Amino acid sequence: HDLARIWKNYYHGSFQANDVELNKLGIHREGNVFIPKSSYGIILEKKLQPLFESIYKEKKELATYELVWEIGKRLEREKKKEESIIYWAWKNKTYVFVPGITDGAFGFQLWFFWQNKHKDFNINVLKDEQKLSELLWKKIRTGALILGGGISKHHTIWWNQFKDGLDYAVYITTALEYDGSLSGAKPKEAISWEQINKKARTANVICDATIALPLMVASLKERKVI
Length: 226
Prior knowledge:
It is a single chain. The chain is an alpha/beta fold. It folds into two domains: 4-127, Deoxyhypusine synthase (Deoxyhypusine Synthase, 3-Layer(aba) Sandwich), CATH 3.40.910; 140-222. Helices cover 45% and strands 17% of the residues. The protein contains ten helices and eight strands. It has helices at 4-7, 19-24, 41-58, 64-73, 85-91, 104-115, 125-138, 151-160, 187-192, 209-222; strands at 11-12, 27-30, 33-36, 61-62, 122-123, 143-147, 166-173, 196-206. Strands 1-3-2 form a three-stranded antiparallel β-sheet. A three-stranded parallel β-sheet has the order 6-7-8.
């Protein structure tokens, strides 16, 4: 979605929309966001295939963070590049690890490129693990701001068990712990796995991240922390 939104528009919709009617109109719904088909899979294929070809000519094997940087570098001429997290990740050389790289439209486009006469193009996720290991052992203290849950949350806390756990952790989620899901698990559960240090400073914020995070950032900026 980060890439699709710099090339095409998404629209404010409604959770109560008639999904059958939306389907007839060629519109996907993600919560209360409407995404025309032309703004997602179609535009991603149009833009990503030549972009992958450009990367392929230079490198045949990349970790996911390297792929993110290569894509970010190629967004330099895009008018809306500054709205892209991927662009700023490349610009600031910030590592972005994508453990679920093959999921969704982006992953499909990777496969589509690979199977179309590019079988030597390899996304090496084990290079990600090596880099995570190197980064982890360089840090004396680590912290995590986790929005939502799922595989990205687990990957973050998992690696920190090898250094006696995170020293700071803030979870922002609307999920509850009672169904046993990782997304709803509170920080204290991770202490039992040694993924968060028992002396760590933690907070579990039950809130929509699109509400809580801007308020947190605004507060930090007001206090000139960032």
